[in-house]
Amino acid sequence: MRKKLLILFCGILTVALLCSNVLIASATSLADSKVKATCKVTVVQKVVSVKLSAKSKTIKKGKSFTLKATVLPTNANMKAVTFTSTNKKVATVNSKGKVTAKKAGKATIIVTTKDGKKRAKCTLKIK
């Protein structure tokens, strides 16, 4: 019975941690009990937004530059992002944000977070 209560307490503690930054908890002493249980709690900080180092840029054909993606909050657990180009004939982008201008025209580079699918864009003009 005490083991079930301890497991239930761990479950409540987990929910409380996920719902709040502040946790006040108390438990009665189980020092006289021979039952032992452990509780592992992992707090997950979800991605709220992402931003790029530039919102727009004009570059010459054949030139390259790198866009930096900043995932917020800074303590988010999963900061993985993907980069895509809306017009690969005009500009390409690799997985690290390096943009290469292929020919004159317009394209948009989009960064998307894997957690929450948050997005940011950089509009390109290639001369």
From TrEMBL:
Q: Which UniProt keywords apply?
A: Signal
- Supply the InterPro entries for this chain: Big_2, Invasin/intimin_cell_adhesion
- Keyword Signal present in the record's keywords: the answer is yes
Q: Which SMART domains match?
A: BID_2
> Signal peptide: which range, if any?
1-31
Indicate the segments forming the BIG2 domain, all copies: 46-123
Keyword Repressor: yes or no?
no
Could you tell me which SUPFAM superfamilies the record lists for this protein? Invasin/intimin cell-adhesion fragments
- What this protein is called in its record is Ig-like domain-containing protein
